[in-house]
Design goal:
four-stranded antiparallel β-sheet, elongated, minor pseudopilin epsh fold, 28% helix
Length: 187
């Protein structure tokens, strides 16, 4: 069978048409894919934080001791910088200090996919007593993505019972509301 020079490949015009179609499809898919990855990061972060809170509370009840959950600075004291490693530790003397490694129940390292802000009133920590209650150390933890997109923000509230609950978007604007009904703002 003989092939003419026309039957040997594709023309430059055909190649350009295919490249343009691929570029158009890619432009439609990439933002959706990026949003999907951001939503996955949010879910992972919130799941880790809720697990840490529940572990701290459950350990306090199971071991009948006081457990503190806070960001710990380089001197092993609770800090106000919630982007430091978060540590749940046995704190029977209520010193808010990790004196020995045996006190540590779990430590959550920081990552670079978002920022955490803890609102604990005058405290720098959450504390659970032997009944699992969070007397005097209630508040919330807000997670915001690095890009500051408030529609991806999440907030975990810790009530006096020591239970974490997720904030909800009650007005349907795509942004969860804080405990006062205001949209959570990422800055």
């Amino acid at each position: 069978m003989k092939f003419s020079s026309r039957d040997r490949g594709i023309t430059l015009v055909e190649l350009l048409v295919v490249v343009v179609i691929v570029a158009i499809v890619a432009m439609q898919i990439i933002p959706s894919f990026t949003r999907l990855l951001s939503a996955s990061d949010r879910h992972s972060e919130i799941s880790d934080l809720i697990t840490l809170i529940n572990l701290a509370r459950n350990t306090a009840v199971y071991e009948q001791t006081t457990v503190t959950l806070c960001p710990v600075d380089g001197t092993s004291h609770c800090s106000r910088d919630w982007n430091l490693p978060l540590v749940a530790f046995r704190d029977p003397e209520r010193t808010r200090t990790v004196a020995t490694p045996s006190q540590i129940i779990w430590q959550r390292q920081t990552n670079n996919i978002g920022k955490i802000h803890g609102a604990t009133g005058i405290h720098t920590y959450f504390r659970f007593n032997s009944s699992g209650l969070a007397y005097g150390a209630i508040g919330n933890i807000t997670w915001c993505p690095d890009n500051g997109d408030s529609t991806l923000a999440a907030q975990i509230r810790i009530n006096m019972g020591g239970r974490p609950t997720l904030a909800k978007d009650r007005d349907g604007d795509g942004i969860v509301e804080d405990s006062e009904g205001n949209p959570v703002v990422c800055s």
